[in-house]
């Protein structure tokens, strides 16, 4: 009965598979919370700015009032942070995920096409399918350390192409897309090229193309407070683009999704540049520690990364599921990559931890693999 009511594309949808939560693993394996190391969801192991702890309680007295749909203080701080005018920025209250959904609701009609090179962040596919898009898959080339195969994008562009998703650094592979390739794609199409910079703060400045929105009308940059600012739980994401794009998106965006508490979190985070720098430097250092440590295992292949995680191929005959299970029993959560389309083989993704977590993780790994 219900099946008859549900939209067909929802009935057949393979939902987004999030990383395992710490709470779930503690319950399932009866572990002590202090023992669990979570390296599965590309979060910030150093938390967020300590100033948020002081600022947040002050907003509680206002919670009976709706938030301002566009908070002028937040817009001003973001504009300063990016050095880009406010009119080119949109902020979303369910993180960058909400911005992805708003892009679909603004641009995609049933039957329109969306190009997604894989393996990549799976939310693009889920959101595109919900909105009735047809997906054309491009490719990050496994034989070339997952470098974007630019031809696989160009050959898929048609008159129906609305959005092209380029994730750089790419999740889960960690590699950036070269500027010249982004430029070539931008100049080969009128479709909107969505460059996902969720992890850009962890990469070299040369890979950041945010400022290009002032030059290219068909460029959309996706960014988030979930990673370097350590605010995944506050759910704040933003987009940067030509002002006409922002104006249209504002028509369909959920009006009050950015809560008063999230607004305070984002404003305070932007004002604490010291924490931002600290978090960025520590994150890069942790990635280097893990990279060097993982390279020592002969049965693992670790890929270079410009993000806050590393893709690791398992070469000892275990499946990624078996490997993750062995780690879970020992209190370590990493991401099993089998849910990433286009990643054939046995892969896991390991997020950065505190230096102590990195050390313990590498020690535990020695019990499982040589
Ligand atoms: C590449 C990429 N884009 C976007 C997001 C969504 O981030 P948010 O937490 O802001 O919704 C993620 C989350 O992990 C991601 O990996």
From TrEMBL:
Residues bearing N6-(pyridoxal phosphate)lysine are: 227
The answer, when asked if Cell membrane is one of the entry's keywords, is: no
**Reaction(s) catalysed (UniProt annotation):** L-histidinol phosphate + 2-oxoglutarate = 3-(imidazol-4-yl)-2-oxopropyl phosphate + L-glutamate
Please report which protein family the annotation says this sequence is part of: Belongs to the class-II pyridoxal-phosphate-dependent aminotransferase family. Histidinol-phosphate aminotransferase subfamily.
Q: Which InterPro entries match?
A: Aminotransferase_I/II_large, HisP_aminotrans, PyrdxlP-dep_Trfase, PyrdxlP-dep_Trfase_major, PyrdxlP-dep_Trfase_small
Name its co-factor(s).
pyridoxal 5'-phosphate
Give the record's GO biological process terms.
Answer: L-histidine biosynthetic process
Q: Which residues form the Aminotransferase class I/classII large domain?
A: 35-364
> NCBIfam families, from UniProt?
hisC
PANTHER family, A to Z: HISTIDINOL-PHOSPHATE AMINOTRANSFERASE, HISTIDINOL-PHOSPHATE AMINOTRANSFERASE-RELATED
Q: Which SUPFAM superfamilies match?
A: PLP-dependent transferases
The main enzyme category here is transferase
GO MF annotation terms: histidinol-phosphate transaminase activity; pyridoxal phosphate binding
> What EC number is given for this enzyme?
2.6.1.9
State the name under which the record lists this protein: Histidinol-phosphate aminotransferase
Pathway annotation from the record = Amino-acid biosynthesis; L-histidine biosynthesis; L-histidine from 5-phospho-alpha-D-ribose 1-diphosphate: step 7/9
Q: Which HAMAP family match?
A: HisC_aminotrans_2
Keywords in alphabetical order: Amino-acid biosynthesis, Aminotransferase, Histidine biosynthesis, Pyridoxal phosphate, Transferase
A UniProt-annotated Pfam family: Aminotran_1_2
What's the domain of life for this entry?
Archaea
């Amino acid at each position: 009965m219900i099946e008859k009511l549900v939209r067909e594309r929802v009935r057949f949808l393979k939902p987004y598979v999030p990383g395992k939560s710490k709470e779930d693993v503690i319950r399932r394996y009866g572990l002590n919370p202090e023992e669990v190391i979570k390296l599965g969801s590309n979060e910030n192991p150093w938390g967020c700015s300590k100033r948020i702890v002081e600022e947040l309680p002050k907003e509680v007295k206002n919670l009976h009032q709706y938030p301002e749909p566009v908070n002028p203080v937040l817009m001003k701080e973001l504009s300063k942070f990016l050095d880009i005018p406010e009119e080119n920025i949109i902020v979303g209250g369910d993180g960058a995920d909400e911005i992805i959904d708003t892009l679909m609701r603004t641009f995609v009609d049933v039957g329109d096409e969306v190009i997604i090179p894989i393996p990549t962040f799976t939310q693009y596919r889920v959101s595109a399918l919900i909105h009735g898009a047809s997906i054309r898959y491009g490719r990050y080339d496994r034989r070339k350390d997952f470098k974007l195969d630019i031809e696989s994008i160009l050959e898929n562009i048609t008159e129906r192409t609305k959005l092209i998703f380029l994730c750089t650094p790419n999740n889960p592979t960690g590699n950036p897309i070269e500027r010249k390739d982004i430029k070539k794609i931008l100049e080969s199409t009128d479709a909107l090229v969505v460059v996902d910079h969720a992890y850009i703060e962890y990469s070299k400045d040369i890979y950041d193309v945010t400022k290009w929105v002032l030059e290219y009308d068909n460029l959309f940059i996706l960014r988030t407070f979930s990673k370097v600012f350590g605010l995944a739980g506050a759910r704040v994401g933003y987009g940067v683009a030509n002002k006409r794009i922002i104006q249209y998106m504002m028509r369909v965006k959920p009006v009050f999704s950015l809560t008063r508490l999230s607004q305070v979190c984002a404003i305070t985070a932007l004002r604490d540049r010291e924490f931002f720098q600290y978090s960025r430097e520590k994150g890069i250092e942790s990635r280097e520690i893990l990279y060097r440590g993982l390279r020592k295992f002969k049965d693992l292949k670790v890929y270079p990364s410009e993000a806050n995680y590393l893709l690791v191929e398992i070469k000892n005959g275990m499946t990624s599921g078996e490997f993750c299970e062995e780690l879970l029993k020992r209190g370590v959560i990493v991401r099993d990559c089998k849910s990433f389309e286009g990643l054939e083989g046995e892969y896991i993704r390991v997020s950065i931890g505190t230096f102590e977590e990195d050390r313990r993780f590498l020690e535990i790994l020695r019990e499982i693999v040589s």
